[in-house]
Amino acid sequence: NSGDRVPALVIGSGYGGAVTALRLTQAGIDTHVVEMGRSWDTPGADGKIFCGMLNPDKRSTWLSTSTDQPVSNFMGFGINKSVDKYVGVLDSEKFSGIKVYQGRGVGGGSLANGGMAVTPKRAWFEEILPSVDSNEMYNTFFPRANATLGVNTIDQTWFESTPWYQFARTGRKTAQRSGFATTFVPNVYDFEYMKKEAAGQVTKSGLGGEVIYGNNAGKKSLDKTYLAQASATGKLTITTLHRVTKVAPAAGAGYDVTMEQIDEQGNVVATKTVTADKVFFAAGSVGTSKLLVAMKAQGILPNLSGEVGEGWGNNGNIMVGRANHMWDATGKDQATIPTMGIDNWSDPAAPIFAEIAPLPAGLETYVSLYLAITKNPERARFQFNSGTGKVDLSWAQSQNQKGIDMAKAVFDKINQKEGTIYRTDLFGVVKTWGDHFTYHPLGGCVLNKATDNYGRLNGYPGLYVMDGALVPGNTGVNPFVTITALAERNIDKIIATDMH
Ligand code: FDA
Q1: Residue 180 Cα, ligand 1 centroid: separation in angstroms?
Q2: Of 355, 378, 418, 488, which is the active-site residue?
Q3: Which pLDDT tens digit goes with each residue over 100-112?
Q4: In what order do the strands lie in the sheet with 99-103?
Q5: SS (HEC) of the chain
């Protein structure tokens, strides 16, 4: 309620926010999480909480009248659908040179993501975050993150035989024939549940075309792990459908946090201000960076570092599809949960880590689809636009060229060996590379640059950054394990030294 005073306020309930909430509440601190999306705990008229990918409705999409699928086209047809405007689970936030997909709701990205839980390569982690003690990370905080997230691995015997992963076996075989190494990838989707889905014993989710608009079962999203544990302490309050718009020093001590309450169609129905002793920014790389850049530019938090807004990257994301021969089918039945990757990261000529991605269309497509994380060194910045009052992101689509070149080196080789070609009909009417969007926004408030070495915002005691904004642009693998473990490390220090 307006006028309230709280000890700790967390903006956002994704990975950074959920870790913060759990560790603060366990330390006995009353913690208030403010989340602009809804709580995904109540079924709709069809008895389901989330809608599937092949029959999307308003629950799919954040405040838009059309879905905006990453694979937007198929054989010359656009496959997006009209939906009612609603606070749906997947947002595609548009900047001039890139579209950024993000999850919306209690659990943030964990609601919409593919669950791939990858610990980054140690040498690369040490290169991007040299101020962080990597012994501590790899001995304590990565294991803690993986355990609390509920990471598991697929039963490899089952993987080899199930029709649901034929697409991954075909992707592996074609990569290996060209000399590329492949690796199994851990996930937070419960693979034992998935086996029961395949056996017809439980309701299908990962085998039922559900993932980017939410999974009705199987996936251990943050609302089932970190946030459920935090809630069990009795010290957690989550306020949904409230969007933080301003954080300003309060008279006396602490910070005034202004927020807009929205209804399920996104209309602002109230504006409130509460005062918090400590404020934790966990609105994601984009959300946190936008807030801080605007606060600095508008003179509300003028002493923030000039590094705020800098160092943003798309984790090198490039998507592409190949057309296999008819004797290398990928299967009409495909799990939505990826579990295999091509690991070519250590090859300086083509450093990529590519997820062999499903394309669960319900029919045989012969397509091998990949989400490549390339070692693209390009970065961009967030800047306040005084004309529009909004924050722009400087990323230009041409900055993807280095990433495309790296991915092309790998997939050209596979195509050459196999005698196959790229699919040009998946990302537009004729467009080979899915380079106009990212799933993995990182940076904008980089650790030990825009903040101190633990996420404290310089010049403003009691303000912290806890999310993907801390990670400098590219972590070489799918990012949520990195974000979670870094948040575990930082909150450990902050609770020990700042919270008394
Ligand atoms: P995150 O985005 O999770 O959370 C931020 C939260 O803050 C959101 O809930 C948002 O609504 C809220 N918020 C924002 N602004 C606010 C404001 N002003 N006021 C109040 N609330 C606000 N990663 C991976 O490792 N493996 C994978 O398989 C995938 N797959 C994948 C698929 C898809 C479709 C997407 C969109 C993303 C992925 N990812 C992924 C990426 C992963 O989900 C992402 O890196 C993390 O969710 C980022 O965690 P953060 O804590 O930084 O923010």
Answers
A1: 30
A2: 355
A3: 999 999 999 999 9
A4: 90-94, 99-103, 437-438
A5: CCCCEEEEEEECCCHHHHHHHHHHHHCCCCEEEECCCCCCCCCCCCCCCCCCCCCCCHHHEECCCECCCCCCEECCEECCCECCCCECCEEEEECCCCEEEEECCCCHHHHCCCCECCCCCHHHHHHHCCCCCHHHHHHHHHHHHHHHHCCECCCHHHHHHCHHHHHHHHHHHHHHHCCCCEEECCECECHHHHHHHHCCCCCCCCCCCCCCCCCCCCECCHHHCHHHHHHHCCCEEEECCEEEEEEEECCCCCEEEEEEEECCCCCEEEEEEEEEEEEEECCHHHHHHHHHHHHHHCCCCCCCCCCCCCCEECCCEEEEEEECCCCCCCCCCCCCCCCEEEECCCCCCCCEEEEEECCCCCCCCCEEEEEEEECCCCCECEEEECCCCEEEECCCHHHHHHHHHHHHHHHHHHHHHHCCEECCCCCCCCCCCECCEECCCECCCCCCCCECCCCEECCCCCEEECCHHHCCCCCCCCCHHHHHHHHHHHHHHHHHHHCC
pLDDT of the residue at 76: 78
The set of protein residues with a Cβ atom below 6 angstroms from ligand 1 is: 11-16, 34-37, 101-104, 108-109, 112-116, 212, 243-244, 282-285, 287, 291, 439-440, 467-468, 478-480, 483
Q: Is the predicted pLDDT of residue 483 greater than 90, yes or no?
A: yes
Interatomic CA distance for residues 258 and 243, integer angstroms = 9
Contact (CB, 8 A) for 180 and 171: no
At 327-368, the pLDDT tens digits run 999 999 999 999 999 999 999 999 999 999 999 988 999 999
Top mutation candidate among 87, 113, 238, 262 for ligand 1, by most atoms within 8 Å of CB = 113
Closest CA to 122 of 334, 363, 345, 308: 345
440 is an active site residue = yes
Please state, in angstroms and rounded to a whole number, the distance separating the CA atoms of residues 462 and 257. 13
pTM over 0.90: yes
If 0-12 CB within 10 Å is exposed, 13-18 middle and 19+ buried, where does residue 200 land? exposed
Question: Mind listing the pLDDT tens digit for each residue in 252-311?
Answer: 899 999 999 999 999 999 999 999 999 999 999 999 999 999 999 999 999 999 999 999
Tens of pLDDT, residue by residue over 411-441, are: 999 999 999 999 999 998 899 999 999 999 9
CA 465 – CA 490 distance, rounded (Å): 9
182-202: average pLDDT: 98
355 is a catalytic site residue: yes
pLDDT above 70: percentage of residues in the chain: 100
**CA 356 to chain centroid:** 17
